[in-house]
Design a protein that fits this description.
five-stranded antiparallel sheet; 5 strands; disordered C terminus
Length: 214
Amino acid sequence: MNSLVSSSHLQLAAFALGTVGWILCTVSMGTVEWRVWHVDNTTIISSGVAWVGIWKVCFISYLQVSPGYIEQFCHKFSGYDSSIPAEIYAAQGLLLIAMFTGLLGLTATVFALRNVYMGITHKTLITRFFLMGGCFYIFAGLCVLIPVSWNFYSVAHNQSIAFPPSYYMPSSPAAQEVGAAIPVGIVAVILLLLSGIFSLLYRFPVTTNTITKC
């Protein structure tokens, strides 16, 4: 059993990294600061700064205030709004997939580690679940990487968004910068990919005095 446990230290680290990566993926998905827009007209956007997320846009305003907020207006994106760019809708779907597949990866890793630490020497079962967990982690990492990279590209090229009048947003900012959600997503990608690699590196220990179930 000692050799079985010692062979899975890297996979235990993969579980820890995967857990943090999955949490950061969820945080990035829920954070509104994907893009930070700086605008010249402060008549409605009082602070001159607006935050564009993947679910809504928000800004500080003394004229337009959303219910439940203090001096803040938020407008959620609707599923049929053609003015919203493709990278925002892609981020919504891909991050939901990443959250789900990342959770599957954690579940598979927990099951494999449970067998290891309980001394269940079932080679095929342990190896397959570590393999499944690694594949899920890598897939989740790629699902986060695509929208993070795509939105980073849009910010770097100062791309505009033709918001409808109900959003009270200009079609293009004076300048824009990367919001907090993108670096959080980058860290999530790194951790999830590392978790996947570590999980895939698992090798069942070969001993002469242990009979394994295949």
